[in-house]
Input
Amino acid sequence: MAFPSKTCAADILRVALAKLEGKGAGSGGLSVRGIAAELGVAPNALYHYYPDRDRLLAAAAEEGERLLHETIRDAAQGRRGAAAVRSMAEAYLEFARRRPALYALVMQKPAPPADVPAPPLWTLVIDVVAQVAGPKRAREAATALWGFLHGAVALESAGRFSDEKPRSAIAFGLEALLAGMRQKA
Output
């Protein structure tokens, strides 16, 4: 007689994300034993879905990337050009501020090989930036935007802005990037 499963991949991932965002991915934050205990199952039950902790972290990074994509897609929806880029950039920054551990995990995810299609997140960013920079410069403009935003997140989370006005400085930098994108579009 078959026994009903007490868990599934979606439940495991849900608990893993909650633990990750509560304590980070470090040794005390995301453990197979901790997830299994919260689900009320033996740790071995998780290995049926995720053979090891690295696979679970990879799944969490994939889910984080999907959530970031959804967040910036929704922010840019209904807007065009610079307004779409601004809205997308603010949503990106807010995602990183609200979900720092998940954001960090997404940023640790290796880039796909050159022969693999770009992930939907990257395709969206390129498409939105192309509205300002033009299709020929969209990839390099998107990379510059990403570098700027990621740097802002890193500086902000490290407390490097001190008493300065980081939001106005970030807005200033974004406007400078947009002006540069428009120059040769």
Q: What stands out?
A: Residues 145 and 177 are 7 Å apart (CA to CA).
